[in-house]
From TrEMBL, chains A, B:
Binds 1 Mg(2+) or Mn(2+) ion per subunit. Its EC number is 1.1.1.85. It catalyses: (2R,3S)-3-isopropylmalate + NAD(+) = 4-methyl-2-oxopentanoate + CO2 + NADH. This is 3-isopropylmalate dehydrogenase. Pathway: Amino-acid biosynthesis; L-leucine biosynthesis; L-leucine from 3-methyl-2-oxobutanoate: step 3/4. It comes from Microbacterium sufflavum. The record marks 140, 190 as: Important for catalysis.
Length: 347, 347
């Protein structure tokens, strides 16, 4: 019995195509002698496409992408300050539009310090946690506006929207994940200041916690959480948090566990109504694009998340193990392709 | 010619009274043979007062505090989860109410890694920057609300409010500070997602930058800023940012520069219309209260900020130098009072 997975591939801008090439190398190799085939469609999207055509993400693009089983994305975004991109906002118009339209309500971001991985902390200890970041609500909804723009009387607002529906589903996902891990869940928010948004998160965590008596539940204000991420990161198992706090914590977590070059993520629609999307946490880094300087490991670990999500646990584990072995053996500078090939060789 | 400064002292809850006792010791000593006298009024405010009287901050309290030249605050807040404080919110009702009512639009938080200070980074380099955090706007305004509270249909919103008036005055302060320092200013925001709030900050920084051609201006997304705080903190000189991002960055910055036990802050009304308030960044830490375990250094460095703000630059420098010498000589555990006395002895 063989299975065909329709995969939409969006290499994107900057270093995106380079790291995606290595991720595909690994995906092809790990599935070569298995009974799954990845049927890939390439989508040319991002700042480059915008500059050529003026389009960011059309309805046709969305429909075509939605017809796939999963999405692999490199990175999107042009050179900061490029005047031609002034009104583009590739982030909102492409990346966030995909996350919102495809209802990626779980933004899954594992942080594991692999033996041998470099890192800024003198004594990190064992670090292995997952941030479950809400992906479709909070301050990311785009419910902002401004009046008297450009004048001394301007007022610019942004509204964070949090619904019981949206919070509950991601909190449930986080508890289920904690059950399969070390059974510790930390809610991160700022309940003492953002009292309404904080209260709904705290209430729902309390309610779902009652159904999971074996999961130890903890709460940290976001400011305190950043302290613990650098002084005691091994205290964390599963962190559940809102879209903006999750954005901040996962960049910091990436830095703490070997750098953003190793941080993978999944934008997941657990219901399966829409394809989930896997992407490195890093951006398009136009300053080093085309130079084979980028580390493709984050993109390759995103393949591991993709495989796991699709139910190919064994293949996923092989990719993770190959990455872990590669990191343990690292020495000296290698090109993007060299890292990809080395990991492929270890599969 | 002698000067009398009316100082409101709010020791607060938990470790607040212990660290304030040491801060006062230092203040008394450093002004002993100078021509300034601090005329202190003690205010009993915080969770303890709320539990006794049901009041958090009355109009009379506010009027009495406002009649002072400056405020020294320890820390406020009761034991987390204390059911009697369920509806108190000491943070919003007392601390934030003071900051907002007294128009503390500059929340000044220096981060300096003193030689010998402990820290989680393997190789921090020279770290010496100041975060200028906006103190009266942003997501802290309390413009939130919720409907259908407690039901599966709840919607809870929080609105960040940013005005040209509010952003411009704090940005001007930050540029003036940068002029007196290493002339580098970094705006931290999340302009790619919070497009309206981000745009007003970016616009005003650009406008004020044009008046300061000798200041190098940089921009970082808040997520990227947390990475640099742990991988390259010496790149920063002056950071200007909104209330919430400033809250997060300064806790992380405190951790990076020797821990939150050393981090001081000033809530400043530069116009002088209201008294400014000086406080350690840390909280009331009820778990270690009354045990002489707290480090009073953050409170003592807040005295240095207070003295500087009031124009006593020489006295301020003496306090900082005494702290620096104390940190360089640290070894073994000391009580709160021992640290305070050691610093006092070095004045
Ligand atoms: C590019 C940006 C919109 C995005 C985000 O803020 O979510 C990125 O920082 C991330 O974390 O994936
Ligand atoms: C206690 C809390 C309201 C406060 C804040 O968020 O500003 C604290 O974290 C701080 O940084 O002074």
């Amino acid at each position: 019995m063989s299975r065909v997975v329709k995969l939409a591939v969006i290499p994107g801008d900057g270093i995106g195509p380079e790291v995606i090439a290595e991720a595909e190398k690994v995906l092809d190799a790990v599935t070569a002698d298995s009974d799954v085939t990845f049927d890939k469609t390439r989508f040319s999207l991002g700042a480059g496409r915008f500059l050529e055509t003026g389009d960011t993400l059309t309805d046709d693009d969305l429909a075509a992408i939605s017809a796939h089983d999963a999405i692999l994305l490199g990175a999107v975004g042009g050179t900061p300050g490029d005047p031609r991109l002034k009104n583009a906002n590739i982030e909102r118009g492409l990346l966030l539009k995909l996350r919102f339209t495809l209802d990626h309500y779980v933004n899954l971001r594992p942080s594991k310090l692999f033996p041998g991985a470099p890192g800024p902390l003198a004594d990190p200890g064992e670090v292995d946690f997952v941030v479950v970041r809400e992906g479709t609500e909070g301050p990311y909804v785009g419910n902002g506006g401004a009046i008297r723009v450009g004048t001394p009387q301007e007022v610019a607002n942004e509204t964070s929207v949090n619904t019981a529906f949206g919070v509950e589903r991601v909190v449930r996902y986080a508890f289920d994940l904690a059950e399969r891990r070390r059974r510790k869940l930390t809610l991160v928010h700022k309940t003492n200041v953002l009292v309404h948004a904080g209260a709904i998160w705290q209430r729902i965590v309390n309610e779902v916690a009652a159904e999971h008596p074996d999961v130890t539940v903890d709460y940290l204000h976001v400011d305190a959480a950043t302290i613990f991420l650098v002084t005691d990161p091994s205290r964390f198992d599963v962190i559940v948090t809102d879209n903006l706090f999750g954005d901040i914590l996962t960049d910091l977590a990436g830095a703490v566990t070997g750098g953003i070059g190793l941080a993978a993520s999944g934008n997941i629609n657990p219901d399966g109504a829409f394809p989930s999307m896997f992407e490195p946490v890093h951006g398009s880094a136009p300053d080093i694009a085309g130079q084979q300087k980028a580390d493709p490991t984050a993109a390759i670990l995103s393949i591991a998340l993709l495989l796991d999500h699709l139910g190919f646990a064994a293949e996923s584990a092989r990719v993770s193990a190959a990455v872990e072995a590669d990191i343990a053996a690292r020495s000296g500078a290698r090109t993007t392709a060299e890292i990809g090939s080395a990991i492929t060789a270890r599969l």
